Amino acid sequence: MTILLGSIADDYTGASDLANTLTKNGLRTVQTVGIPDPSLALPDVDAVVISLKIRSVAAEEAVAAALKAESWLRGRGAIHVLYKICSTFDSTDLGNIGPVTEALLSVSSGDIALVTPAFPETGRTVYLGHLFVNGQPLDESPLKDHPLNPMGDANLVRVLARQSRNRSGLVDLPAVAAGTDAVKARLGALRGEGVAAAIADAVFERDLETLGRVALEMPVSTGASGIGLGLARALVSSGRASANTGANDAIRPPVGGLAAVLAGSCSVATLKQLEAAERHMPVLRLDTEKLLAGQDEISAAIAWAGERIADGPVAIAAGAAPDVVSRLQARYGREIIRARDRNGHRSDRRRARRARRETPRRRRRRNLRRHRRQARHSSLPDRPGNRPRRSSAEDDRHCRKRHVAGAEVRQFRRRGLLRHGAVDDALTVDFLMHSA
Questions:
Q1: Which of 266, 251, 233 minimizes the C-alpha distance to 142?
Q2: First CA to last CA distance, the chain
Q3: Rounded to two decimals, what is the model's pTM?
Q4: What is the pLDDT of residues 261-289, one digit of tens each?
């Protein structure tokens, strides 16, 4: 069976949202959890959404998983691959939106990709390259303090540029409103400037339809479910897919049996949904601190659900309010809390014991080592701060050779003014000293 549209989603819930959007807009869609086996027999479908968990992993790991998924989708005939990301552009300066988009472009012989998290139906719009959440700039909205991927910059062109090797550009709203020819002309101009990823403005649903028609003629795009809406409507309007949504019934067998809801997100929306769920079903909130302490919360949760699930659906939640998560991150370290709350209910006693006995200085050193490994292997601009870095001792020796006391350099480093490996000559050090 040959498919038309393939999608690689960076998390499971986003994949479900996209699959729902594609189905509502006329595509017969199948969603898989993980990369399917090559022998998987597909029903007669137009689109396949592969659900991965790569939003918050190291960039090289995300790229490797996305490329395997892309190979599977192209092998099934996909003419276009969409990298599905969060509508709030959840990422950091290390990725993973930029590195994965560039990797997908490199294997598909593409030279530029449209990128937009806009989805007006859910209050996400992009104007002049800035992301708005229900009318508020992202960095002023309640989502700016996300406990795992805080977003302090609403300018997506800047955000994407910081995590990409190549340049980023903008297809602004006037070009989008003028139609497909104007968007293509703008992309041509950006291509000539060496831009590989273009943030596209979108304020109305018709903007997504325009972007979908343009993106369909390119091998790769990146965005939230909004661009999926545009791609689906473009496939239907071009006649390549039938809008007979009733055919989906043939690929959806009846679902029965027991039901449970597992929630691992710490977002405000998820916490509100759990509050609403408590009015209709039993909800168990796992204690993250007990998980970190190595207590067997999982067995207790399974026993709790077993006593109630025969009477109806139950919900088990691992997330917590942002202030609680921030307190736990300050005590145990951000990466350990991320592993508990996002990857869901896994017991890792060795890391928990290490977190409890770590001093702040040891934690900083461990985080620096991790960032050095990520910077060495991830897709980052070729800047001095992203090259393989010296050790702390090497930095201090280097600075002393430049007649700068090691203690002063360490003081700058503690203030965040000097990063390991950023000292390449005496001018850099002199600048830092005189600007401190």
A1: 266
A2: 63
A3: 0.71
A4: 999 877 777 889 999 999 999 999 998 88
Closest CA to 185 of 210, 166, 167: 210
Query: Which pair of structure tokens corresponds to residue 262?
Result: 């597992």
Nearest to 113 by CA among 12, 2, 227, 26: 227
Instruction: Encode pLDDT of 302-353 as tens digits.
Output: 999 999 999 999 999 987 777 777 777 777 765 555 555 444 444 334 444 4
Cα 301 from Cα 317, distance rounded (Å)? 10
* Alpha-carbon distance values, 56 to 236, 255, 349, 377 (Å): 34, 32, 21, 16
What strands, in cross-sheet order, belong to the sheet with 220-223? 29-33, 47-51, 5-9, 80-84, 220-223, 113-116, 195-200, 167-171
Q: Tokens representing 217?
A: 């003629």
* 219 and 110 Cβ atoms separated by less than 8 Å: yes
Grouping H, G, I as helix, E, B as strand and the rest as coil, residue 290 is: helix
Distance between CA atoms of residues 152 and 41, nearest Å: 44
Distance CA 192, CA 81 (A): 23
Residue 25 pLDDT level (bands cut at 50, 70, 90): very high
DSSP-derived 3-state class of residue 388: coil
Question: Do 258 and 310 touch, CB atoms closer than 8 A?
Answer: yes
